[in-house]
Design brief:
This protein has about 850 residues and is α+β, with helices and mostly antiparallel strands. The chain is about 55% helix and about 15% strand. The chain has 26 helices and 24 strands.
């Protein structure tokens, strides 16, 4: 039986190749996701290890807690006097205070150098030579004095900044001019993970990016013979209360883990796309084995007639699936390397740059990918294989002819139940206050239910879609009839395309609704005429000095700045927004229902009505808040507002002065501007643009410009999602090719008879192409309708987060349907040519 299994498998090379490709593509995406994640982690591990390679131990303040559940840690600065104690410890060779903070480079023309992918723009203390490790001066010299700077080599090369050039650098304070005296590299890299870096001498760094009288940390180098761990232990013993000493390797690993944690969502997102691709691929495997069982019914019956048991038949087909899964998975893993490179290039093209190193193919990637590929293949083949065991020996006397399986009532009942459960889950998520997880299960149940039911409606759908083909005469009529002949097979083939297109369309509807809602949100919750925003949509913010400069322009009536931060509030890690109490009410509709904004002090907080009601809070109550930099404090509720899910999208509001006191000086994320009555908006905007000449990290836009900037970010994310989902569509098209190729083989005698009675080869090709178009359009139309419904439901379930408008991009949806039909025609080229080449004489005598 094993020999027969192997021979049967390799006897149909086209079927083997197409089915293998469908599995391999899904596994390639899965393996590529793992490879990309492992490579990115290794790249950050290497970069941070290089950056701290010259440091044996670090003395720093203890962190109150890790922000965002471990994604990053902010610490209070350590008193500068501690360095004197550190230098007295036995085993210390060198100890130096280090400072770091926001420092944005500009090019020779004064334009901001904005790293892609939202990478930070940082300023640092240039370490003493013995502490630099892999931080090397590639060209020039280290900075000395208040007007010299060394910058990362990538920024210098990419922007033609030569040694001796004078450039401006932006800080949290005023913009200053510096002479570039050197370029810096990190081991073999010319920048630190895509970020830009500016290095200053210790005094300058402490003044411009640090804290006067304090350091961010104290870096220590050990004398020969003293290990890092031993040095850290000695330093920890003398460290003042509230401080700690750790090894340099620990600091590097913490930094790498923080970045990896922040990028975890990317691996999850790519993993979801891989799961979708494999799910779609399973339809192809199912179809292939179903058709194979039908075509090999005489072969299976003969095996039964000569003594093969049902178990042997089942084992034979499952062994074929197992072997196919192993081969396809191995090919998929090999292709995964190329997929990882392609994903990296895609990220770069869309502005989500990641550091790179040699691709990391870990053993876990191999065995997980192999296991998933084999399991998916075997499970998808299980039902068709069980059906093969029901072939009776008497069927060896019959010819295998293409036909239609009778659809069971049970299928319809199960499908309707699943659809009902899915709709119930969606409605409960929309109107019943159910958790988002139940809403997600509703979506899954609805999709599976449609997949189960679609064979029951495949015939009428094929008739409606294929109706225009009747105008093309007999070829069109036969194409429609062929699509209707086996509804289970047609529906299964169309379902693969339906799922991929449904997800693509749903994301398009969601993105369109999100963009449409943002304009309405601005109209409803702000009174701004102009907006001050970041020069790059991916930047974390801009210097408060930019807001100060804009506020002083003639014609500006009011400017209200906003910020953003993270803290542990009432025991849970969450985010908050910061506002300017003196101006916020004139520009932002907070819909304050109790208390006051104007009287807010550094130790006050505003909370949303929903949160206040949930915790039985009223004005005057104390809220326990823990900040990463300064620790625990109780803030007083000075007001309760109802505009949660609005422009600020936060349930907690601090004053900007309060954020500075508790979290340190922060960047501004945006500012709303109101102009004087009678003033020309264009003139005021021009005046602000002139005032921002020394602040290129910010720009002024009108409402449409602000909507366009947010919309551009949404479009980039949508492009990423769409490209990822297109893999599932490609796999679905391979399924159409596979189904048609097997169908042509199955209908060899029929095609020969058609040719014998006068059908030309061109008519045969047209018949197969139109059949493919009907199948593709069936999947596309049902998928588009399902996608629109899912997109609308997803938008509606997030209406409390500000998505008020529903927008269906009809031209885009119609384009997808048309492209699916065209792709179906193209997918049929190979099978159509095979059908046209059928030998008439051989066909009419085929057994």
């Amino acid at each position: 039986m094993w020999t027969a299994t192997v021979r049967s498998m390799f006897a149909h090379k086209l079927r083997l190749a197409l089915t293998t490709a469908s599995i391999a593509l899904g596994i390639a995406f899965l393996a590529g996701t793992f490879i990309l994640g492992d490579t990115t982690k290794q790249a950050f591990d290497d970069l941070f290890a290089q950056a701290s390679s010259g440091t044996d131990a670090v003395v720093r303040e203890k962190a109150a807690f890790n922000q965002s559940e471990g994604a990053g840690t902010a610490r209070a600065p350590i008193d500068a006097d501690v360095i004197n104690q550190v230098r007295t410890v036995d085993g210390v060779r060198v100890a130096e205070g280090m400072s770091s903070g926001y420092a944005l480079l500009t090019d020779n023309d004064g334009a901001a150098i904005l790293p892609s992918g939202g990478a930070p723009t940082m300023g640092y203390t240039m370490p003493a030579e013995s502490l630099r490790g892999d931080i090397t001066i590639l060209d020039g010299a280290a900075p000395v004095g208040p007007r010299q700077v060394a910058i990362d080599a990538s920024s210098a090369e990419d922007n033609d900044i030569a040694i001796g050039s004078t450039i401006k650098i932006l800080f949290n304070g005023p913009t200053r001019a510096f002479t570039v005296v050197g370029t810096v590299g990190y081991g073999d890299e010319k920048d630190l993970g895509g970020s830009s870096s500016a290095f200053f001498d210790p005094a300058t760094a402490q003044r411009l990016v640090g804290t006067p009288g304090a350091y961010d940390e104290i870096d220590v180098k050990a004398i020969d013979g003293v290990s890092d761990a031993e040095l850290a232990s000695r330093l920890d013993a003398i460290a003042p209360e509230g401080t700690e000493a750790v090894t340099g390797a620990t600091v590097a690993q913490e930094a790498s883990d923080a970045v990896t944690e922040e990028l975890k969502f990317l691996n999850i997102l790519l993993g979801i796309f891989a799961a979708v691709a494999l799910f779609v691929g399973s339809f192809i495997i199912w179809n292939t084995f179903t058709m194979t069982v039908t075509q090999r019914s005489r072969e299976i019956a003969l095996a039964r007639a000569v003594g093969a048991t049902r178990w042997q038949v089942l084992r034979s087909l499952l062994a074929e699936a197992l072997l196919l899964g192993l081969i396809a998975s191995a090919i998929g893993i090999a292709l995964g390397v190329a997929v990882a490179k392609g994903l990296t290039a895609l990220m770069d093209a869309l502005g989500f740059s990641l550091p790179s190193t040699s691709l990391q193919l870990q053993p876990s990637t191999i065995w997980i990918s192999m296991l998933v590929g084999v399991v998916v293949t075997v499970v998808a083949a299980l039902v068709p294989a069980r059906r093969a065991t029901k072939v009776l020996p008497i069927e060896a006397l019959r010819e295998a002819t293409p036909g239609s399986d009778r659809l069971s009532v049970r299928r319809g009942v199960i499908g309707v139940i699943l659809i009902g459960l899915g709709v119930t889950g969606l409605l409960m998520g929309l109107y019943g206050g159910a958790p988002f997880g139940l809403f997600g299960l509703g979506i899954l149940a609805l999709i599976v239910g449609v997949v189960v039911v679609i064979p029951l409606v495949a015939r009428p759908l094929a008739s409606v879609i294929g109706a225009p083909l009747r105008w093309r005469g007999v070829t069109g009529e036969l194409a429609e009839e062929n699509a209707r002949r086996n509804p289970r097979r047609t529906a299964s083939t169309a379902s693969a395309l339906m799922i991929g297109l449904a997800l693509v369309v749903s994301m398009g509807v969601f993105a369109s609704s999100l963009k449409a809602s943002f304009g309405d949100l601005l109209d409803d919750t702000t009174n701004a005429d102009l907006y001050l925003t970041t020069a790059s949509s991916q930047a974390e913010g801009f210097s408060p000095e930019a807001a100060v400069a804009a506020a002083q322009v003639d014609g500006v009536k009011a400017l209200s700045a906003t910020g953003f931060g993270s803290a542990r509030i009432n025991g849970s890690g969450t985010s908050y927004s910061s506002i300017d109490p003196s101006t916020v009410q004139s520009l932002l509709n907070l819909d304050l229902s109790d208390g006051s904004v104007t009287d807010m002090g550094p130790n006050d907080i505003l909370v949303s009505r929903d949160v206040a009601d949930a915790n039985n809070w009223t004005v005057g109550d104390k809220v326990p808040v823990e900040f990463a930099a300064t620790g625990k404090d109780d803030l007083t509720i000075s007001g309760i507002f109802d505009a949660s899910g609005g422009y600020l999208e936060s349930d907690y509001l601090l004053s900007i002065s309060g954020q500075t006191v508790h979290a340190g000086q922060q960047l501004i994320t945006s500012a709303l501007i109101q102009i004087d009555d009678g003033a020309s908006q264009s003139d005021v905007q021009s005046g602000i643009e002139a005032a921002l000449a020394n602040h290129p990290d910010a720009k002024v836009v009108d409402q449409q410009g602000y909507e366009d900037q947010i919309g551009g970010t949404i479009d980039n994310l949508l492009a990423l999602v769409t490209v990822m989902l297109l893999l599932a569509v490609i796999i679905a098209l391979l399924g159409i090719v596979n189904t048609l190729a097997l169908s042509v083989f199955e209908r060899t005698r029929e095609l020969g008879l058609l040719r014998a009675v006068g059908m030309t080869s061109g008519q045969v090709r047209a018949m197969v192409r139109w059949e493919s178009a009907v199948i593709s359009l069936m999947g596309a139309i049902v998928g588009a309708a399902l996608g629109v419904g899912l997109g609308v439901a997803l938008s509606q379930t997030l209406k409390d987060e500000g998505i008020k408008a529903i927008s269906v991009p009809v031209p885009q949806v119609l384009l997808y349907i048309v492209l699916a039909g065209v792709a179906g025609v193209l997918a049929a080229i190979g099978p159509a040519r095979s059908a046209a080449r059928v030998d008439v004489l051989r066909a009419v005598v085929t057994e």
